[in-house]
Automatic annotation (TrEMBL):
The lineage of its organism: Bacteria, Pseudomonadati, Bacteroidota, Flavobacteriia, Flavobacteriales. Pfam families: PseudoU_synth_2. Gene3D superfamilies: Alpha-L RNA-binding motif, Pseudouridine synthase I, catalytic domain, N-terminal subdomain. This is Pseudouridine synthase. It comes from Hyunsoonleella aquatilis. Keywords: Isomerase.
Amino acid sequence: MIYKPYGYLSQFRSRDSKQQSKRFLMELYYFPEGTMAIGRLDEKSEGLLLLTTDGKMSDYINSQKVEKEYYALVDGDISEEAISKLQKGVEIGFNGKKYQTKPCKAFKLKEAPQLPERSQKIRDARHGPVSWVSITLNEGKFRQVRKMTSAVGFPTLRLVRVRIGPIQLNNMKVGEVIPVDVLI
């Protein structure tokens, strides 16, 4: 498991001409041949990412059987109405089509989570209210959490995956890698 830093791609392939300025996880450490990220976090997202050389494990965790929990810092003081909409599922765009997200667990966090500071500054409460929400999904469409919070009127400012199944981010440092033998 790795705490994927903000600004890195969850990929282990060589750069093509379109990605010359991008940063990849393979630049942080030496990973064994055949290492792949289980699922992805986009360049602007951070947090828990599992790495493996086992394709079957990757397929299982990417299936809809394993929960993934995210903390999202959103622009504004998220309302109970917006939380309710997230829980029931919202319509987002995916591959040029409308997609109805599945019901999920969502709630407003009472306090800001204790997370490492992000390498790039984020607009904070000095510029208007912000709030943190926990969203737990069993699916994972491209930029889904960001699209969901935007669909209910509260765009995501920071997104951190904190849990995959029983494996939690806990107090990991940004960029830290911890070997795990836990099967989900």
